[in-house]
Design a protein that fits this description.
Blueprint (H helix, E strand, L loop, with lengths): L2 E6 L7 H14 L4 E6 L1 H8 L6 H14 L8 E4 L4 H10 L5 H5 L2 H10 L6 H4 L1 H10 L5 E4 L4 H17 L8 E4 L28 H10 L19 H9 L1 H13 L4 H28 L1 H29 L7
Helix pairs in contact: 3-13, 4-8, 4-14, 8-9, 10-13, 11-12, 11-13
This protein binds tryptophan.
The site of tryptophan (TRP) has 14 residues, from strand 1, helix 8 and strand 4.
């Protein structure tokens, strides 16, 4: 069976943008691939090093969100990054042949640095894409489902793998990238991106009432004052969500909006119902885990143990390839 490795930084709750960007692909592919799901806590520290106290809760939150969306812990290996020392070892070895300029020109690093207001970049932050290459290669993943913003990191991973295999011996696997069906979901405020820091999100863990409140806040076509005014769905946030979550009805909704036969209130009510219907099975699974939080810890510990044994095999081959395998 081919492998998937994917993951999240544990920085808080996951939202609908994450879902259509990459999470749903994990769920769909878990039967076809031996799937590793990584909680990238070391990577979270590259922006949150001053607040390690939040990590323990966020690690469990990331696992809970992924269990809620339907990753089956009997099939999927849940991994805590900081407990796989081989990831750190691989990161150090790879860093010998990744240039600082390549890292500085990574567009995701640049936009995150701007977002966080970093000017003098920390070594760990600048280098986290190298560590991400180690995340992906320790288990020789063939496929990596991610959001659009991760594409530059996957390009770097592929480069590192090719370089390693050329320099030493062909032991690593060059992974394919898989981006979700909606590259970037707009925020409730109409911002190009749904993002926690912009507070324009609907979270997977939101209650039905909260989803309704949030959808009601979403900005619509500003030219539409009365329900009978002719609307412009292409500029409407709510229509963007209908396209993402309500494909079956979205063409009809566009026509009714353009013709002024459906008002924004009714259109939002319809969207709320569709989103809540999608979230309902997730809520049921989430409640189960919230009643048995010890299960989440067990899943993380068992998965991490398996990951360490897979990583140890890879590390053995890497050491041999690099001729740093002295006493065997
Ligand atoms: N960088 C990813 C994010 O911010 C999280 C991540 C860490 C990841 N390691 C990974 C994703 C390996 C895919 C593969 O969402």
């Amino acid at each position: 069976m081919k492998r998937i490795l994917t993951g999240d930084r544990p920085t808080g709750k996951l939202h609908l943008g994450h879902y259509v960007g990459s999470l749903e692909n994990r769920v769909h592919l878990q039967d076809e691939y031996d799937t590793f799901y990584l909680v990238a806590d070391i990577q979270a520290l590259t922006t949150n090093w001053e607040h390690p106290e939040a990590l323990a809760q966020h690690v469990r939150q990331a696992a809970e969100d992924n269990l809620a969306i339907g990753l089956d812990p009997n099939k999927v290996t849940f991994v805590v990054q900081s407990l796989v020392p081989q990831i750190a070892e691989l990161t150090v070895l790879f860093s010998n042949f990744v240039s600082v300029n390549v890292l500085r020109h990574n567009p995701t690093i640049k936009s995150e640095a701007a977002q966080y207001g970093y000017d003098d970049l920390m070594y760990g932050f600048l280098g986290y894409p190298v560590s991400q290459a180690a995340d992906i290669t320790f288990c020789k993943a063939h496929l990596v489902p991610v959001g659009e913003d991760q594409v530059p990191h996957l390009e770097l991973t592929r480069r590192i793998v090719r370089r390693f295999n050329d320099l030493y011996a062909p032991v690593l696997v060059e992974p394919e990238t898989m981006v979700g069906r909606v590259g970037r979901l707009v925020g409730l405020d109409g911002n190009a991106k749904m993002s926690k820091s912009l507070e324009n999100c609907i979270y997977l863990s939101d209650s039905p009432e909260m989803v309704s409140t949030q959808v009601n806040k979403a900005v619509t076509d500003p030219a539409r004052i009365r329900a009978t005014d002719k609307g412009h769905p292409e500029v409407c946030t709510v229509y963007g969500y209908h396209q993402a979550f309500n494909q079956g009805e979205s063409a009809d909704i566009a026509t009714s909006c353009q013709g002024g036969t459906v008002g924004c209130v009714a259109c939002k009510r319809r969207l709320t119902a569709v989103i809540n219907k999608m979230l309902e099975p997730m809520r049921e699974r989430r409640v189960e885990y919230q009643q048995h939080p010890e299960r989440i810890d067990e899943i993380l510990q068992a998965g991490t143990a398996r990951a360490v044994s897979v990583a140890a095999d890879t590390m053995e081959q890497v050491r041999q390839a690099m001729q740093i395998h002295y006493f065997k």
